[in-house]
Amino acid sequence: MSANPPAPQRIIELRAVSRAYGLIRAVHNLDLVVHAGEFVAIVGESGSGKTTTLKTINRLLEPDSGDVMIDGVPTRSHPAHLLRRRIGYVFQRIGLFPHLTVAENIGITPKLLGWSRAHIAGRVGELLELVNLPQSFAERRPAELSGGQRQRVGVARALAARPWIMLMDEPFGALDPVTRDALGSEYRRLHERMRLTTLMVTHDVLEAVLLADRVVVMRSGRIVADGPPRVLMNDHPDETVRALMDMPRRQALRVAALLEERARG
Amino acid sequence: MDDRVAVAWQQLPLYLGEHIVLSAAALGLGLTLSMLFAIAAVRNRYVRWPVLTLASLIQTIPGLALLALFYPLLLALSALSEHLFGRGFSALGFLPSLLALTLYSMLPVIRNGVTGILTLDPAIGEAARGVGMTDWQRLLRVELPLAAPMLMAGVRTAAVWVIGAATLSTPVGQTSLGNYIFAGLQVQNWVSVLFGCVAAAALALIVDQLLALIESGVVRRRPVRIAAGVLVLLAGIGVAAIPRSDAASYVVGAKGFTEQYILSALLAERIAKEGGVAMRRTGLGSAIAFSALAAGEIDIYVDYSGTLWANVMRRTDIRPRTQLLAELRDWLARERRVDLVGALGFENAYALAMRRNRAAALGIASIDDLAAHARDLSVGADFEFFARPEWPALRDAYGLDFAGRREFQSTFMYDAVATGEVDVIAAFSTDGRIAANDLVVLADPRGALLPYDAIVLVSADRADDPLVRRAVAPLLGAIPVETMREANYLVDRSIDPLPPVAAARWLSENLAPRN
Q: Are A29 and A66 in contact (CB under 8 A)?
């Protein structure tokens, strides 16, 4: 036995995970490891199994077979609701509770965990600042906010109980392009600052390439490519991966050409 | 007018109080059960369909039938409990009413609760699970608060239904605002009927408005409104539930028609004169009255020999008057431990009657004569008559074949024959409206109709009570048919009618001298 260099800590690990809906196999025999501090994006077409994969991690869906481990412990060994309180979850449709104020929405997981009222109030103040919302929003209701503001609250809610894992399912998919870009890069900074481990599902390859350290490409319930964006964009042997990953580069080149024309004209 | 309103006001505290307690208990129980069913239906889609279907099905049963069905069911359960644990319970009055109304209240709450939760945005449910709520936390913190407005709308509907339907509990022996309506309908006291309707409607309206206040408090999250609405409701129930001192030691029963109201008042008056405290339970269904006596729920009432012969003994043959009475007395004592104290002297039998001028024009004096014309005539009766064994017996004995037949509430039957809507009715021989409407009773030469002696029945518990004996003795054989007919007419006449209690007083002053 030779001594190995210390391996990076495995935070999320999926081992041979399969999940079907009736006869349709959504995820098939999938292995995936996410290390501490990584920002991983899963891309792929609709129905490729991205969201199913993500939801097996916080047990919103249970795998038919295979194991999901968090910090090396099978997720099945604890009740699902306790697991979810330790994992931030943000999704496209946000799901703010309309009968609660912004502060109550943000403070919900700490409240479930039994934090004191003062502790929760302090944490809500911090989070509003962190997601760039004025403190005066605390007493507003979700219906009074714009789409972008709502998803800022959604992110704050997910971060409230200081999780170190964030699962994000098309988090900015329903927002206008400007807000989307701003929120994406703001979140990336939060990820760095709070040393989070983030797994994000998106169908927007450009977003994936710009935000993530590592991109996982899925097709028909399997992983067909997995690597840093730079590597995947560089003449990947798989044709569909090439077609997918070429897109941001082609768009970038077209935009560059356009800018050049303008400059000349 | 003023007199009848004054009497109605006097009865209001008792009737309204009982009505409120019954409705509140049924709503409270119904709400609790509905919530449990609604939650089960939301959580499990295999439970959903059966629960919603069953609740809808119950709603299709007419309220009165639902109440009536609970009586035999509870009677059987009570007998079973007595057999198993040596203790029975009252199958009459509060319990059957409570259970029927509880069932009745459930549909709107279950349906609105299930719909309210299932139509929530699925994203909210996903978020609730995502932030780490358990199933119960999701229900209590998210789903129920968000479905609350819809749920409250269901509660309001249920409350209005229950308060309205509670008036139907009078025939199973539960005092309610329905007493105004049922008694009024019988003795054609329309003031009483109207009073009962207005009181029930006003109660429903007030409760609905209070619930609306609570609803608006829930929707706008104003705890003060919720508290105010709940407090007023609870205060109302509290006041209604204060026990009234009506510790009656003798319960006198009566079925739901004029003669019964008068006779029960007469019996109560006699018991009071002998030093007893009597309470009347009036408007009982015909079959319920006897079961109630046999079960000891009421102590005394007047029934008719032919009714028990056919309905309780299930006999289809016909015996002469005295022989039938003797056989009935033996059978009741042996089989049901009910004491037939004696006959009052008159018969209240079914008798075919026609308008005098019409009978004269057709030359009809007996049922034999009628048979020749029956093909061109229509016959009317109360809800019971055509289902009784004597109808086919009568029909076959005379070969009657009418052109049509209709059934009426007995009050309206006399109006129907008077206006010519039907030609012949199966009238009651003591009814004052026979003379009042100028009807003739057709002779029964073949003796096809059962004898119906008015008889005083006493429950097993009271059979040897000397006070009851003393109270009843002066009445036996002391009421000839003409006297009873006149007493009935005092109440049934359209001009200056008397309340049954006044007619009872008149009757007690006009008892036939006994030999």
A: yes
Q: Which two tokens stand for residue B357?
A: 């001028």
Global pTM value: 0.69
The domain defined by B350-441 carries CATH number 3.40.640.10? no
* A-chain residues near B147 (CB < 8 A): none
Asked if B494 and B188 count as a contact pair (C-beta separation under 8 A), the reply is: yes
In 3D, which of B175, B206, B246 has the Cα closest to residue B15? B175
Alpha-carbon span A115 to B30, nearest angstrom: 38
B360: helix, strand or coil: helix
Does the beta carbon of A82 lie under 8 angstroms from any beta carbon of chain B? Answer: yes
Report ipTM (2 d.p.). 0.91
Mention the CATH class of domain B2-241.
Answer: mainly alpha
Write out the H or E segment, with its range, that includes residue A20.
Answer: strand A10-21
**Six-digit token pair at A181?**
């870009």
Angle at CA of residue B49, ends B46 and B55, nearest 5°:
135
CB contact under 8 A, B130 and A112: no
Classify strands B453-458 and B339-347 as parallel, antiparallel or unpaired: antiparallel
Q: What is the tens place of the pLDDT at every residue in B134-163?
A: 999 999 999 999 999 899 999 999 999 999
pLDDT for B188-236, tens place per residue?
Answer: 778 889 999 999 999 999 999 999 999 888 877 788 999 999 999 999 9
| Fold (CATH) for B250-345+456-509 | D-Maltodextrin-Binding Protein; domain 2 (3.40.190)
